[in-house]
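Please decode residue identities from the backbone states below.
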């Protein structure tokens, strides 16, 4: 048993109603070699029934951390998964527990991984589900697939225990933690709001889709730093153009041409199975978009951008995000 890997996997139980389920989950975890349990706003805890059902896993229960929010529970994790069997209006990528186990075990060699389990009655709230990189489903009887939460913990922990018995290489990439991603999302929203990109009536819809896009793309730390550098460049340019509005020489015709080339770039990046820095068309298009805002493109920077966009995404979301920054203009 590789205890170091299993100890990097955190079970997060959100607003659990029955204290017995907390104790049973702690027992299930210890049986499969896990010991990192975090409880988010448990309804009735600590409780004698939790201690009773934990049996020989009282140590897991006693060292469990109680927090007031999911954000606090996952802040230091680089990968977050949410258990859910329901579809939502904005469905996240979903994998079966057995399919997800190799990725969890692989990334647990590098940093913390959290798996969220919701309340017994309704499961995880949409707001909690949206904080995960992808969802995890435990397949069962289609006519009645409802599991007790402690049973769900047992099944997921079993899949992880069985998977870690095999050999998995640690990922070469270094991924940002959740708190670092959240800072990027806030920076992105602030910048898009400043340049008039977001609809004031429904700013959350665009940001939700962008978060889904970046969750699928899984930007590495270096890529995230580069994206934040781009946003900082736009922020500085936005301030200078507001102070000197007469210096804006961008015409409507030039703006329209840039818009068209942006959409063309988004389509090229999404439709191609693989895009490399040798692709002159894509490189020229990327340069056309980023050079007007003062962002200097070097080969490594371009490669990082293209590789991230080429992984996964949708034409609609990509073209929406790639919409060029236009000095001193508002969204039509």
């Amino acid at each position: 048993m590789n205890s170091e890997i299993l100890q990097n996997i955190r079970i997060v139980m959100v607003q659990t109603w029955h204290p017995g389920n907390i104790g049973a989950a702690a027992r299930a975890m210890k049986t499969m070699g896990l010991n990192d349990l975090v409880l988010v706003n448990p309804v009735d805890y600590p409780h004698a029934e939790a201690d009773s059902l934990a049996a020989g896993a009282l140590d897991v229960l006693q060292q469990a951390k109680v927090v007031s929010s999911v954000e606090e529970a996952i802040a230091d994790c680089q990968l977050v998964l949410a258990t859910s069997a329901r579809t939502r209006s904005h469905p996240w990528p979903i994998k079966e527990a057995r399919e997800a186990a190799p990725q969890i075990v692989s990334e647990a060699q590098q940093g913390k991984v959290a798996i969220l389990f919701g309340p017994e009655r309704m499961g995880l709230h949409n707001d909690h589900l949206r904080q995960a990189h992808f969802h995890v489903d435990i397949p069962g009887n289609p006519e009645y697939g409802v599991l007790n939460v402690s049973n769900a913990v047992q099944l997921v922990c079993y899949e992880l225990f069985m998977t870690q018995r095999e050999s998995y290489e640690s990922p070469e990439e270094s991924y940002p933690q959740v708190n670092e991603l959240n800072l990027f999302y806030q920076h992105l929203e602030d910048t898009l709001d400043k340049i008039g990109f977001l609809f004031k009536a429904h700013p959350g819809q665009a940001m939700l889709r962008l978060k889904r896009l970046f969750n699928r793309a899984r930007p590495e730390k270096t890529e995230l730093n580069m994206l934040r550098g781009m946003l900082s460049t736009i922020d500085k340019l936005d301030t200078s153009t507001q102070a000197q509005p007469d210096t804006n020489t961008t015409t409507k015709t030039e703006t329209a041409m840039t818009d068209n080339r942006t959409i063309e770039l988004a389509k090229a990046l999404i439709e191609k199975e693989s895009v490399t820095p040798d692709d002159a068309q894509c490189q020229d298009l990327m340069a056309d978009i980023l050079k007007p805002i003062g962002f200097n493109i070097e080969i490594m920077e371009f490669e990082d951008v293209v590789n991230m966009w080429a992984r996964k995404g949708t034409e609609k979301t990509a073209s929406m995000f790639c919409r060029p920054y236009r000095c001193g203009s508002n969204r039509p």
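Observation: The first strand starts at residue 9 and ends at 14.
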